[in-house]
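Sequence and structure are no longer studied apart. To make this concrete, we show below a single chain and its fold as tokens.
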Amino acid sequence: MTEAVQVALITGGVSLLGTIITVILTSRKQQHEMDNQIAVMNTQMASMREDIQSHNRYAQMFSENIPAIKQHMADVDRRLDNIERRAS
């Protein structure tokens, strides 16, 4: 093998090795960034679940109290009608 071929093979091998190392390191960095983004999204989703559950508890309390509120309003209307009849 001539000296030029040996130099070309060594240069190509070093270049290939550098490329492989770069690809591996870049892949690891991207995987780490994706893992961080997934962790952030999971935290946000957990927070949203808590907010939704809180909202649902208030909605349930409100819907459970509506019949009582309607009954109270009917009583108030009836009393108001009695007061207006007496005043007339």
